[in-house]
């Protein structure tokens, strides 16, 4: 069975991205990482992924712009936005979840794989 591959875009701090990457990899998935929206879009254009996880606080591009670019190229690709602010809204995202609970992230990614 092939492993799912997820792209995680987050520039909050390397420790946050590193811990999320470790959690997802420990669940036996492949992870590509980007530290900015621009880098995330470049990686997205070069590698096939099963879903994208993007932190709402990326600084170089608005979250909604990054999601819109992804959806323009692959409208059905799941995009999950994580945010420390409950109720944060990022246009076109398929799911929006809190950034502080790794178990919820894993559950959402499992739902994506199962669909």
Written overview of the protein:
- This protein is an alpha/beta fold and 115 residues long.
- The protein contains 4 helices and 5 strands; from the N terminus they run E-H-E-H-E-H-E-E-H.
- The chain has a 5-stranded parallel β-sheet with strand order 2-1-3-4-5, sandwiched between helices.
- Helix 3 links the parallel strand 3 and strand 4.
- Helix 2 packs parallel to helix 3 (63-73).
- The longest helix is centred in the first third of the chain and has 13 residues, at 14-26.
- The model has no long low-confidence stretch (mean pLDDT 89).
- Would you tell me the structural class of the helices and strands? alpha/beta
Q: Determine the number of helices (DSSP H or I, runs of at least 4 residues).
A: 4
Largest sheet, in brief, is:
5 strands, parallel
Distance between the termini: 15 Å
Our estimate of the beta-strand percent is 15-25%
Low-confidence stretches: none
Strand order within the widest beta sheet: 2-1-3-4-5
Shape summary: globular
Mean pLDDT, to the nearest integer, reads 89
Number of DSSP-assigned strands? 5
Helix content: 40-55%
Oligomer: single chain
| Radius of gyration over C-alpha positions, nearest whole angstrom | 13 Å
What is the succession of H and E elements? EHEHEHEEH
How are the secondary structure elements laid out?
Layout: E1 5-9, H1 14-26, E2 30-34, H2 37-46, E3 51-55, H3 63-73, E4 79-83, E5 95-98, H4 102-114
Parallel strand pairs: 1-2, 1-3, 3-4, 4-5
List keywords for this structure.
115 residues; five-stranded parallel sheet; 41% helix; alpha/beta
């Amino acid at each position: 069975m092939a492993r799912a591959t997820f792209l995680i875009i987050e520039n909050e701090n390397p420790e946050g991205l590193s811990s999320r990457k470790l959690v997802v990899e420990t669940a036996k998935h492949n992870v590509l990482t980007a530290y900015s929206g621009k880098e995330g879009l470049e990686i997205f254009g070069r590698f096939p992924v099963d879903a994208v996880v993007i932190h709402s606080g990326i600084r170089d591009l608005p979250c909604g712009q990054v999601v819109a670019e992804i959806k323009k190229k692959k409208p059905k690709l799941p995009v999950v936005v994580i945010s420390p602010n409950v109720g944060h809204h990022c246009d076109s995202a398929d799911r929006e979840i809190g950034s502080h609970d790794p178990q919820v992230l894993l559950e959402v990614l499992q739902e994506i794989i199962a669909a």
